[in-house]
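Q: My labmate handed me this sequence with no annotations at all. I'd like to see what the chain might look like in three dimensions before we decide whether it's worth expressing. Could you predict it?
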Amino acid sequence: MMFERTVSGYRTQLRILVILMLFALVVASAFGVSFSNLQIEAIAQEGSAAVQSIMEKKHATAVTVILADANGIIWQGAYGEGAYGEIEQGKGALPTEDTLFGICSVSKTFTAVAVMKLVDRGMVSLDEPVVTYIPDFKMEDPRYRDIGVIRAQWSQHLKFEPGTNAVYTNDGFSILEVLVKRVSGLRFVDFVQREIFDVLGMNSSRFLVSQLPENSYAVPNPADDFSTDAYLNMYGTGGIFSSAADMAKFATSFLTPGRLLSAESIKEMGEDQTKNLFYPIGRDDGFRYGLGWDSYSQPGMAAVGIDAWQKGGDLGFYGATLVVLPKEGLTATVLGASNFSSSDAGAIAERVLLKALVEEGRLKAMPKPSPLSAARAALPDFRERAMIAGYYAGMPYSLTRAVFDDEGRLTIEAKQGE
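A: Here is what I predict for the chain of 418 residues:
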């Protein structure tokens, strides 16, 4: 088995202030990307510094990080802040690489993989309308018949012609849950368990269909009011709980065609799905969609010429990110609890991966952050303004309003947490 490779290394314990307990497990890579113990220690220091910076700023209760290649874990770190006292609460424990976290919208990547497994078996075509597989799916808007599987939108009316625009939404992935069930004959949670968790040996991972075992999960700040009795049935959009160790197995499956998906399906997932779509105000580089990926070209890696696929997730209590460098053969997973976002997780993953690329000799030095510059664009015409203006819901718990004045200038009004 891939993850049975010989481990040689050591544990180091660091203390940050009085309340922060850190430990990092250094694992020497026997195969794949080769790093010496000194190089792994340098990666561990960079990763620990990145986590320390964000935990001190955000007061997150727990963070776990894993850097891996196709043959297993290169370095992993688990960090817990005693200020919120997981052990004192009697609910959880200080985190390890096996501690469960909500992976939030990273669950969508599992849904995409589930669909692509059906594609590999010739049971689903990505270009077929969703009604081919779910005949009773319908909308008030007659254009629903043209909705393809991946671009499905579940609402009463469509703002764009199907296939001309894509926005981030849970609805399409909820439809894919139904599609997987209809085509496979299995409940979505059972299909993912049998076809992904069991195949990869992700023995800790689970959907929140029952109470999590005591001491198995990272406990958020009590102020977050998280309860494992409040079962989350958004299975295909954000319902998975997993550990960093399990997520490393999932992440590295994209580096090893045949473990879960064919090489063709892995490649398809990492292709630009937005290149022929209409974006009146341009595309956010962080959301250049692949299939199940927020971005097929993660901005930080793209800035130094590295291809990277990224998916993040936020659920209020938890934040997570998964990054795969398909050509470099590296992956990073970061999971965190309490006031910890996918952006925080992404910043940590980025620093760990960049440091690994420096130690490998792929990059000469850690890049310096680029200064922000004002974006310039031509004023949209009246038609474009009508399409852009309106209210936008976001995560976590935000509502944004886009308003144009008489001169065509755009104002963004945002309200958070209400």
